[in-house]
Task: structure prediction
Amino acid sequence: MLNKILLSCFCSFALASQAWAETAHDEVSNVVDMDGKNIAPPPIDGVIFDHAEDAHASSSGLPQFDPEWFASQVFWLAVSCGILYFVFSKKTLPNISSVIENRKNHIDSDLETAEKLTAEADSVHNSYQANLNDAQNDASTAIKAVEDEAKAKTETTLNDLRLKSDKELKEAEKRIESSKSAAMDDMNQMCVDAAAQAVQKIIGLNLEKSKIQTVVKNMNGDIQSNKTKAA
Amino acid sequence: MSNPIEQFEIHSLFDLHVGGLDISYTNSSLWMSIAVITSISMLSIAMRRKALIPGRLQALAEMTYEFVANMIRENIGTKGRQYFPLIFTLFMVVLLGNMLGMLPYSFTYTSHIIVTAALALFIFFIIMILGIFRHGFHFFSLFIPKGVPWWLMPLIVPIEIMSFLIRPMTLSVRLFANMIAGHIMLKVFAGFSTGMVALGVGGVLGSIFPMLFNSVLIGFELLIAFLQAYVFAILSCIYLKDTVEIGH
Result:
């Protein structure tokens, strides 16, 4: 930015100096012009003489409308344009267009390669994803199988244990029952014995054991019924 | 004070007469040659390396190329490719003429009506010749716009012919007037500066203001220099479109 400002300042300064220089030049050369121009070029033919006259006549107007230099300008413009057209169409423009074309091809091929690589990467990614999914599935099924197995095993062990313990419980109950009835029988026997002895001692009568047994049994039955009544 | 018109004066550097015509090599011719040499060498140097990744200069050259190519594509179409070197040459001639004219002590050949008129007439005749050669008599249907009721024709056709004939005039005068006005303005403001200097110490201090204003003007003129080259080229494109296809 600063550079540009400086540059345009410099240009305007140069313009001012040019104006200044031309002012000075005018002041000096006016004198020379007065006597120099008409004498110096000797009129070789009519044309040049006429031109000199023209130049003097039109010096007050815009130089653009002075036809003296029209032919020269058109001629040199045509020459310049011709050269430019020739060089541009034969060399410069094909050069630039070939470079641009070349770059375009390069970019296109690069893009193509990039696309191919992207597709490849995508396919690799997809297969990786598929593998990952498979592995995950495998792992989950394996875990499930192991879990199921373990569950089944515990189930069977638990069942076995339950059955075994039930059996043992039942056996134990049975044993208790049998020992209870055995104890009851013993007690009855003892009761019978005690009753027999007591009868013998008190009244001196030998009673048949079977009779006493029925009495005890009946009493037992009464006790039993009382007990249930109480309950 | 110096004359702001003086910068447009032509003086011969090398006298040359062919068949009674004075085709002397003048300062105008010199700056045309400088424009030719500058544009060719610039573009050649820029494209010297033909790099895939362009440097600054190469990018500039390619930008110019793409700029003109887009202009033709948009205004003429794909058939305009044949005119590419022509439009590019015109654009470069006018652009270089305008831009070189911004250099101090230089000569602006595009500020001469004969130069711009020669360019415009050249385009005009190319259009006439190519148009008639390609389309034959059908080329003159250019003057009969489509969809206009027949009773308007007596009015429309002369207007169309007039606007066609006046094209080289507007094309040349637009460029010429822009260039001459800009350069006279620059010179007048530069003249203010030098005039003030002559007034003494206060004048020296005061002379800085026209100079600063000139700085702004130079930026403005650079814009105009580019813009006028663009306008000249794009109008040539639009006119040349008639040789490729006639819309009605």
In short: Residues 28-59 of chain A have pLDDT under 50 and may be disordered. Residues 70-203 of chain A form the longest helix (134 residues). Chain A touches chain B through 56 residues (CB under 8 Å).
